[in-house]
Amino acid sequence: MRDFSDATRRLADLIVGFGANVQPGQIVAVTTSTGKEKLTREITRSAYEHGARWVDVQTYDPWVKRQRIALAPEDSLEFVPPWQLVRLEWLSAEGAARITLSGPSAPEALEGLDPTRAGRDVMPYLPNSGDVMNRRTTNWCVAPGPTVGWATAVYPELDPDTALERLWDAMIHICRLETDDPAGAWLERFASLTATAARLQERNFDAIHLHGPGTNLTVGLFRSSLWNAAGFTRADGLKHFPNIPSEEMFTTPDPARVDGYVSTTMPKELYGSIIDGVRLEFAQGRVTKVEADRGADALRAVIAKDEGASRLGELALVDGEGRIGPLETVFFDTLIDENAASHIALGTAYGFMVGDETERARANKSAVHVDLMVGSAALDVDGITEAGEHVPVLRNGGWQI
Domains of the chain: which residue ranges? Predict the structure, then answer.
């Protein structure tokens, strides 16, 4: 098998120095999983080279989670240890950097278990994650961490070593690691996305209409909804790039103004279960019907978490010019797949993406955030003005504005 040590090091440096933008003296919290040890160690090395005061690593084992789902008392499955919540609040108060490695390390770990039980245990996602994110107190980045388990799920026809090589090749391409200056390559791509987001902002649409095979959904926006791409800014002005890769532009919708129906175009890994062929119906912002070819019970369990879990917290548009969609590959990792296709998210919203304070208070709140990919070349996207005019926004993956 080929040696990917150089790619691992380059990816770590991109995550630490560009994505999370780690600063001297910072605490750096890393959330990872088994099978990602080499990349985790390189991230630790890079963080200390950037002047980190302490790198705190939490490693999750999906096989340990299997034991909880299979054997824990029914009324304990939503329990979150208080010290986990306190730790995240402390990281927020400390102004820490946070790094999370995505991608399943053992996709088969929860096979055969009750998906309803699995859907009730959403850790390592924490219920106060949305609050911390909306305070903008930490600089953070989520990035892929290739593993053999993930590779064999994406390329089941290949032997494990060959599958891992192919997954690494895909991540090198997707993350622009083959260039002499990956950060510079991302800044160039982000400049294009940001310019398009600015044009969307100028139109100040009242709603966005998604229509195509299996989808006819109108998503209302706040008058002060903001469109953003690529970068976030901490409350103190520190710039960081939360997703590597990132090909989307997104906004916060009005959770009370979503009507119609929508169908997913890609399967999704949801807290250990695979959901596919999802069809949702909305009325006055709330999901009123859930159907799926696979995993409906798991999704219903998540939607039942709280009041906000059945409403939208995000709408994101993705064009056809990125590097992920053209691969025509399902990666079973939300970070990658959501940047291949336009998507919606049930659950907590980016409150800071609403400019008016009164409207911001109405942004959706939930203990979960579940992205669902609904885009394809066949999905048309229109902006709807306050006067009711429909303006083409996306056609065949190309911007019309």
Answer: 5-182, 190-228+247-399
